[in-house]
Write a structure and sequence with these properties.
By secondary structure, the protein is mainly beta. Helices cover 14% and strands 41% of the residues. It contains three helices and six strands, in the order αββαββαββ. It has a single domain, classed as Elongation Factor Tu (Ef-tu), domain 3. It starts with a helix and ends with a strand. A hairpin with a 5-residue loop joins strand 3 and strand 4.
């Protein structure tokens, strides 16, 4: 991994998005740049979301989805993928494929 991927603010790319059963969304994300944060830094954090066409919003990470198995720091560091359960601000568009997430802010 190059040095620029190990430092800086985390940047994630959404590789899958679906509606959560009760409210919010489940987002499968992959680390696209910056350092790989610890799970405790992400849980409860607010992330800045940006669509490919420039639409922006803020989302709050409510929990980690266990659809693909239990999330751990070791697994996240190895795969670079994470399943997030997020809440959207009312009136904001749903997050979709190819959106980028940065933060926590």
């Amino acid at each position: 991994m190059s040095p620029d991927k190990l430092t800086g603010a985390p940047l994630f790319r959404v590789i899958d998005a679906m509606d959560a059963p009760f409210k919010g969304q489940i987002l499968r994300v992959r680390v696209a740049g910056g350092r790989t944060p610890l799970l405790r830094e992400i849980r409860g954090a607010v992330l800045h979301a940006r669509s490919p066409n420039g639409t922006e919003s803020n989302i709050k990470v409510r929990a980690f989805s266990t659809i693909g198995g239990r999330q751990t720091d070791a697994r996240f560091g190895r795969t670079g993928r994470l399943d997030l359960v997020v809440d959207l601000d009312p009136g904001d568009p749903p997050v979709g494929l190819r959106w980028t997430l940065s933060g926590p802010i």
